[in-house]
């Protein structure tokens, strides 16, 4: 089927040409999501508004063997919504309604395009909130959170997205509609909802999502602590957890990250010479929160803290949080491009791994800032690079991969919350055996038999291994030449 | 013209677009993206397109030009952007490029030249139009026209605007107000020069009178430079940077000569443009410095009152009021708390916050005329956000006032729409009755 035939069929399904983008130049803005190092132009973008429309579109594409992928706000950081195979992008942003809230049973039903933070805002009047809070929560969608099994600062105590989604209506890659999970209690049979969450849009498209909502805690205290040395901050993190306290959140920023965000609208005023800032939040019953706050302040003091403060006003607390949550976006203040990595390590290895990342930074000549969920051992090294310098993008990607290998070597993983996408697909080989990957491929084939739904993401294809290896060898050869020739003249050293 | 955006002098700035890291935080505050869900109509999308066009990888056709002109230039994206991308400046620069080589239709070009090049920049022509309009309103012509049904020929949005146009006063504030305030005794807070604007002084000269009374009441010396002209904001927004520069130069010279400590105004759009003259002259060796000096003196009326200190009115004004943040006050100038503080200083006045007070009302310069459909959608959202139990909606920009008035009229609602300074003026005037 040629392009215009496909477009007219898609338009017929949606009933309006306003809901299909298909001219080459209007697809340009859809070349990438929050991950910009690799790009691909989709064949078309469609904007369905109901489950039935999504199903009808998927049926059409399945029948015609046209590849497709779902997209939310496009804030993903591993390229999960990037069209590598000239896909039709099924944009879910117009499915943005809060369908139902059951305050007695603490459940809410949303469409996939509903914005994460909006849920908390809209149920705040009933003293309720939605716990998973990715940094991009003011813009990212709950459908996207489901696809990536997104995390966020408060996952330390409350768990990631999969702990908060109880049921979903899903359009399978064949176009059938299925209801997975159970609004109350556990679903019978295989945990298909568990399989769907975090499948990065490869097993189906959620069109109605039932989430657990929580009552706001009685009290919240937020602590900011500044450390001369990263090690002292890391040890503080370990000791807080060791003392039996589970903070709602425990976040760390290093010097470069603080410098970047302090240049933005979210200026806190970090001293220029401190190596690390910790943002710690405790919540719960008033007395417990007060006692834990005192205990945490004491632990900070035992670790040569430069200064430690407890937020006095909501405005101050909000500023501290904005400073942390906007840190990725603020990288534009210090670097034309950046790549955010998402490695997980055992918490006790924090000091060691941060030192290894510093070494990688020095040897590659690329600056690396660190902003991360210290309490979970979920690192976000932000690799600064300049895409206009030949091969620097590839170099940044290799640096990212090297860091992930360090994480795996100490017993961790290659992603905590951002997904594998296209960014880390080759690193999957480092983490899993061929047998393990085969099992994953087999599962995918059950749901996505034609491999039309977000192909080329998450699980590497066995047939492509040789190709991928050849390409990466080629890139590293280029890089070696590049590093040798530019040695000594690199302006990006630490 | 198919190649990059740098064909014309004053190309869009690489330094500005390369700052965007594509994080997407801007999406959910962008009014056009909220309505359409289309990345092309989002800040990050527009920056991506402008960049591609500037680099020559995307032809400079309607796929770039339409999104650039569909932008309200409300700057809400700048408020949230962690990287500090100056989307407003980029949009204005791109419009400048676009205007230099797109073919406008005959009518578009005629209207553009008529309003942006002939009428607004010329105080004399504006005065003649003001007189015509006043004649239209005070003679029976308006009634005859309204009764004749001729207005039905106008599109709905213009008809609604016609219905709510304020009465044109007998004379413009600029011509009526003395060049210098006579009051010198008790002047302790400094000297201000009042900027009267173009359209503002035709339809809202009462707000200028209120501004002057409030300034005098707060021990400011007021001058009204007679040679001043329109600030050029509408021209900048439309992409006519050449015309805007001519006008800005004139104002810079006139106001710097006045010797005032501050250049004070009460229209958010003009304030933002005048604070940003620096960008307009970023490549001008002579005027860049003068523009910087000029911009450093520009203050909104609410801002200056807070800065130099104001006296709390000694009267009571029993009203329930909600406040709408004009984009060019809140986002472009970061003035949010000052107007609210002034309102709270009035005893008896209850301020009730509306939802998303800083979302654009759709007025956006002449956007409501050039893009009536999107403007109407945003107007409806704004009206839906107004609390039901308020009597008055206050704001700091005449464009928003007309837009919201027209919306209330269309829905048959009877809230008052006022400039913040008018409420303060009323409270000061009531003081005499208290005494």
TrEMBL record, chain A:
The keyword Oxidoreductase applies. This is FAD-linked oxidoreductase. InterPro entries: FAD-bd_oxidored_4_C, FAD-bd_PCMH, FAD-bd_PCMH-like_sf, FAD-bd_PCMH_sub2, FAD-linked_Oxase-like_C, FAD-linked_OxidoTrans_Type4, Oxid_FAD_bind_N. Pfam families: FAD-oxidase_C, FAD_binding_4. Residues 38-216 form the FAD-binding PCMH-type domain. Its EC number is 1.-.-.-. It comes from the Bacteria. SUPFAM superfamilies: FAD-binding/transporter-associated domain-like (SSF56176), FAD-linked oxidases, C-terminal domain (SSF55103). It comes from Sulfoacidibacillus ferrooxidans. PANTHER family: GLYCOLATE OXIDASE SUBUNIT GLCD. Keywords: FAD, Flavoprotein, Oxidoreductase. The keyword Flavoprotein applies. GO terms for molecular function: FAD binding; oxidoreductase activity.
Automatic annotation (TrEMBL), chain B:
It catalyses: glycolate + A = glyoxylate + AH2; (R)-lactate + A = pyruvate + AH2. It is an enzyme of class 1 (oxidoreductase). The keyword Acyltransferase does not apply. InterPro entries: 4Fe4S_Fe-S-bd (IPR017896), 4Fe4S_Fe_S_CS (IPR017900), Cys_rich_dom (IPR004017), Glc_ox_4Fe-4S (IPR012257), Helical_ferredxn (IPR009051). One of its GO terms (molecular function) is metal ion binding. Keywords: 4Fe-4S, Electron transport, Iron, Iron-sulfur, Metal-binding, Repeat, Transport. Its cofactor is [4Fe-4S] cluster. Binds 2 [4Fe-4S] clusters. The keyword Electron transport applies. Pfam families: CCG, Fer4_8. Its EC number is 1.1.99.14. Transmembrane segments: none annotated. It comes from the Bacteria. Residues 10-41, 61-93 form the 4Fe-4S ferredoxin-type domain. Component of a complex that catalyzes the oxidation of glycolate to glyoxylate. This is Glycolate oxidase iron-sulfur subunit. It comes from Sulfoacidibacillus ferrooxidans.
């Amino acid at each position: 089927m040629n392009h215009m035939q496909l477009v007219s069929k898609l338009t017929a399904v949606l009933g309006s040409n306003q809901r299909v983008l298909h001219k080459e130049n209007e697809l340009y803005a859809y070349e990438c999501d929050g991950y910009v190092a690799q790009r691909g132009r989709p064949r078309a973008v469609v904007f369905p508004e109901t489950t039935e429309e999504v199903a009808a579109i998927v049926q059409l594409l399945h029948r015609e063997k046209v590849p497709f992928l779902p997209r939310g706000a496009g804030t993903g950081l591993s390229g999960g919504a990037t069209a590598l195979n000239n896909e039709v992008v099924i944009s879910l942003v117009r499915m943005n309604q809060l369908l139902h809230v059951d305050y007695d049973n603490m459940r809410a039903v949303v469409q996939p395009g509903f914005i994460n933070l909006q849920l908390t805002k809209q149920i705040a009047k009933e003293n309720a909130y939605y716990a998973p809070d990715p940094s991009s929560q003011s813009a990212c969608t709950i459908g996207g959170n489901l696809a990536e099994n997104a995390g966020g600062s408060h996952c330390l105590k409350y768990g990631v997205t999969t702990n908060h989604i109880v049921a979903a209506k899903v359009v399978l890659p064949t176009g059938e509609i299925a209801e997975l999970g159970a609004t109350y209690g556990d679903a019978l049979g295989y945990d298909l909802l568990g399989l769907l969450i975090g499948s990065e849009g490869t097993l189906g498209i959620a069109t109605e999502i039932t989430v657990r909502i929580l009552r706001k805690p009685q009290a919240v205290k937020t602590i900011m602590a500044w450390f001369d040395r990263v090690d002292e901050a890391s040890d503080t993190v370990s000791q807080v957890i060791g003392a039996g306290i589970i903070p709602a959140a425990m976040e760390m920023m290093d010097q470069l990250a603080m410098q970047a965000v302090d240049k933005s609208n979210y200026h806190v005023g970090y001293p220029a010479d401190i190596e690390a800032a910790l943002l710690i939040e405790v919540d719960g019953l008033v007395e417990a929160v007060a006692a834990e706050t005192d205990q945490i302040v004491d632990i900070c003091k035992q670790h040569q803290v430069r200064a430690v403060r407890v937020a006095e006003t909501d405005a101050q607390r909000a500023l501290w949080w904005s400073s942390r949550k906007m840190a990725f976006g603020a990288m534009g203040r210090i670097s034309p491009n950046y790549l955010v990595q998402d490695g997980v390590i055992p918490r006790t290895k924090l000091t060691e791994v941060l030192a290894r990342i510093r070494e990688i930074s020095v040897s590659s000549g690329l600056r690396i800032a660190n902003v991360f969920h210290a309490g979970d051992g979920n690192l976000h090294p932000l690799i600064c690079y300049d895409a206009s310098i030949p091969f620097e993008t590839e170099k940044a990607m290799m640096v990212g991969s090297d860091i992930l290998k360090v994480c795996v070597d100490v017993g961790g993983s290659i992603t905590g919350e951002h997904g594998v996408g296209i960014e880390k697909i080759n690193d999957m080989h480092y983490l899993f055996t061929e047998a393990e990957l085969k099992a994953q491929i087999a599962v995918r084939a059950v749901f996505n038999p034609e491999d039309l739904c977000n192909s080329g993401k998450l699980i590497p294809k066995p047939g492509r291994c040789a190709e991928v290896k050849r390409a990466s060898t080629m890139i590293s050869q280029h890089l070696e030449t590049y590093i040798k020739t530019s040695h000594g003249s690199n302006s990006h050293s630490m | 013209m198919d190649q990059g955006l740098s064909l014309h002098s004053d190309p869009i700035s690489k330094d500005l677009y390369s700052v965007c890291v594509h994080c997407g935080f801007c999406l959910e505050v962008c009014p056009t993206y909220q309505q359409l869900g289309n990345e092309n109509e989002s800040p990050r999308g527009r920056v991506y397109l402008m960049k591609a066009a500037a680099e020559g990888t995307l032809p400079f056709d309607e796929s770039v030009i339409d999104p650039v002109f569909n932008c309200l230039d409300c700057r809400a994206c700048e408020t949230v952007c962690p990287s500090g991308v100056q989307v407003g400046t980029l949009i204005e620069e791109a419009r400048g490029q676009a205007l230099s080589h797109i073919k406008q239709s005959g009518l578009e070009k005629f209207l553009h030249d008529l309003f942006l090049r002939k009428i607004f920049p010329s105080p004399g022509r504006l005065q003649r139009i003001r007189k015509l309009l006043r004649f239209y309103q005070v003679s029976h012509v308006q009634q005859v026209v309204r009764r004749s049904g001729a207005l039905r020929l106008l599109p709905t949005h213009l008809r609604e605007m016609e219905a709510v146009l304020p009465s044109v006063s007998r004379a413009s504030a600029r011509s009526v107000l003395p060049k210098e305030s006579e009051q010198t005794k008790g002047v302790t807070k400094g000297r201000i020069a009042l900027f009267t604007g173009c359209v503002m002084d035709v339809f809202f000269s009462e707000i200028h009178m209120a501004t002057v009374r409030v300034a005098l009441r707060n021990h400011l010396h007021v001058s009204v430079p007679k040679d001043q002209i329109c600030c050029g904001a509408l021209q900048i927004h439309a992409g006519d940077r050449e015309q805007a520069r001519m006008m800005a130069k004139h104002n810079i010279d006139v106001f710097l000569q006045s010797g005032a400590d501050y250049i004070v105004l009460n229209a958010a759009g003009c304030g933002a443009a005048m604070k940003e003259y620096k960008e307009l002259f970023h490549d001008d060796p002579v005027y860049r410095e003068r523009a910087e000096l000029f911009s450093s003196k520009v203050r909104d009326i609410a801002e200056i009152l807070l800065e130099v200190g104001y006296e709390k009115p000694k009267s009571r004004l029993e009203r329930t009021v909600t406040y709408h943040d004009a984009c060019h006050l809140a986002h472009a100038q970061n003035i949010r708390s000052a107007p609210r503080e002034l309102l709270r200083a009035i005893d008896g006045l209850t301020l009730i916050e509306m939802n998303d007070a800083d979302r654009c009302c759709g007025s956006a310069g002449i956007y409501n005329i050039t893009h009536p459909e999107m403007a109407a959608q945003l107007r409806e959202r704004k009206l839906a956000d107004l609390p039901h139990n308020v009597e008055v909606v206050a704001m700091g920009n005449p464009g928003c006032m007309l837009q919201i008035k027209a919306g209330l009229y269309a829905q048959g609602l009877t809230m008052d729409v006022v400039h913040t300074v008018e409420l303060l003026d009323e409270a000061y005037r009531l003081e005499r009755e208290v005494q």
